[in-house]
Amino acid sequence: MTDEPTARPRRNTRRLVLIIVVALAACCAGGGVVSWALLRWYGTQAGPAQKVTEDFLTDLEKDDTAAAYRLLCADVRAHLPEDSFTTFVHAEKRVRGHKVVGTSVSTVNGTATALITADLTREGDVRDRRTVRLVKDGGSWRVCGSPY
Length: 148
Fold this sequence. Notes:
The protein has helices at residues 4-61, 65-70, 74-79, 82-91; strands spanning 95-108, 111-122, 126-137, 140-143. The chain is an alpha+beta fold. It has one domain: Nuclear Transport Factor 2, Chain: A, CATH 3.10.450.100. Strands 1-2-3-4 form a four-stranded antiparallel sheet, with helices on one face. The N and C termini lie far apart (87 Å).
């Protein structure tokens, strides 16, 4: 008897292990590339919507209702004059601080929409969670709804 029959199974085992390692490495690399691409896409979509929300809430904190009004979508501005918006905002407890805690962006039937969830701190240390709805309006994100 020779050692050849025992050498072959070892060689086959090494090949199998090598193939599995290469396949796993390829899957991990592919998954990493896909994850990076999705995060990059999501950042380009969610980032600008979140920035508009931050600006809007900061304007409310500074009681700059004129600047906040300019960030509203055309549909809301068409139905809510600026002085009515100001009166409505002042009827609520003033926003003193905010923290964005969630972001969701979607496109349905060609309409891009974002939902940004923020924890608001109002006068008297009242805490309030609001979801700010935004739509793409003329190529820019605009607040569309009643988050105040």
